[in-house]
Amino acid sequence: MHLYYFLLVISALACGSVPPREVDLSNAVLSSLSMVAGWILLTHIASRMVSNYVKRGEVEPLDGAQIVEKQLDIFRWLGLGVSVLCLAGFGLARGLDVIPIVQDSMFLQSLVLLTPAVAITVGTWSSEHLYGVRLQYTDATISNYARTLWRSFRSGMAWLVVPVLILLAMSDALNSLPISATASSVLTLVGIALFVPLVLPWLIRHLFKTVPMANNDADWINELMKQSGARRTRAVRWDTGGSAFNAMIAGFIPPFRTLFLSDRLLDELPTPQIAMVVLHEAAHLKRRHVPLRMLGILPAWGVGTLVTKVLGDYSWAMIAGSAVGVLLTLVLLRWISYRTEHDADVTACRLAAKLAPEFPQLPADYDEACDALSAALYRVTFDQPAGRKATWLHPGVSDRVDFMRKFSQARSGDTAISHSPTLVSFPGSQ
């Protein structure tokens, strides 16, 4: 999960808890439109200026691309503040309760709340496309422009924004039924409980552009997943247009889960490294890391709810509770994610040593598996040095490599490593 997209959705929806008050809605809308449009204009001006430097030979093309990327990153992050200003400062969120139809729909309210931040993000994608057009890296046609924006949305925030909106639309539909509020709440909770493990993986699989994997790859990858304990997981080729090294698993309940392996990863990594990436993802399933991360959010929002109740007499109680919930979520998810990533790396190397006799694609022992996975981590970040640094959900590459090597065994196999006292053990792990 990209931290930016997570905060985009959370911060926007949290503004819905701003205490309502009478506002001039037309002024709020006009001010918000002006601010967002001005911000998008600034991103395009920034990209245009850098492209001019490159065209005049004052900046190298690669350096120019990196400058644009950094500038747009800054515009996106500052854009979150601009979004909050529009919603809470100008009063766009405060006036939702007086808009006909919108006031009775959580889905429509969320659309309004998400619009400023989403528009700013799309604006940065647009300015990035403009940079490519001006330097003739891509076509200037309207159709290509539309495809570029759609591809960016589809491979970025769509997997988070679309499910949230679907759940809210479902909640609206249940609340409109002629049943009691209690029954509606129970049905909503049941719907969410079924949506996350069953519908969400299917939805993500269709949001991401995928194609069938080559038969020779599909056969051994599916068999490797099966033998590693991740049975009934469908492996697909993730079509990113050759732009991304990535792998992920959507879902955690068989057969409603899919292993995504990006086109660039499959095309450019040697087979032993691909196999180690597959085992890393299989380890997340085997060790039940996904539900563990989901459960890790509950204490944070439990504390946030408690804060709201304690401060119930104050108009800003809901804001304070939401802020506490968001902050604790960030802290807990980071803590859990770092430990699960380290655990998945070590478990993948152990699995490789155990399954090597059955799979010629795998390294022969733990040490070789560690070398292959380390090489894969460095290879997928070779043209993005920033990707080697620690992020919200992933420890830095060097930290991961060092952690794996702590458990390097002098002999192959799956022995004494499980007795190491420093390897974190998680509830429900096998």
Brief overview:
The chain has 430 residues and is mainly α.
Walk me through this protein's architecture.
The structure is a single chain. The protein is mainly alpha-helical. The chain has a domain at 1-158. It is 65% helix and 4% strand. It is built from 14 helices and four strands. The protein has helices at 3-14, 25-55, 61-89, 106-134, 142-155, 158-175, 181-207, 215-227, 263-268, 271-286, 289-310, 317-355, 366-379, 397-406; strands at 210-211, 234-238, 247-250, 258-262. Strands 1-2-4-3 form a four-stranded mixed sheet. It is globular, with a radius of gyration of 24 Å. Mean pLDDT is 88; it is low at 409-430.
Brief descriptors of the model:
430 residues; mainly alpha; 65% helix; globular; disordered C terminus; Peptidase family M48; hydrolase; transmembrane helix; transmembrane; membrane
Strand order of the largest sheet: 1-2-4-3
Order of helices and strands: HHHHHHHEHEEEHHHHHH
**What ranges have pLDDT less than 50 throughout 5 or more consecutive residues?**
409-430
Mass-distribution shape: globular
Number of strands: 4
Counting helices, strands and paired strands, the structural category is mainly alpha
Q: Main sheet, how many strands, which sense, barrel?
A: 4 strands, mixed
What separation lies between the terminal Cα atoms? 25 Å
- Helix tally equals 14
Mean pLDDT comes to 88
Estimate the strand proportion.
under 5%
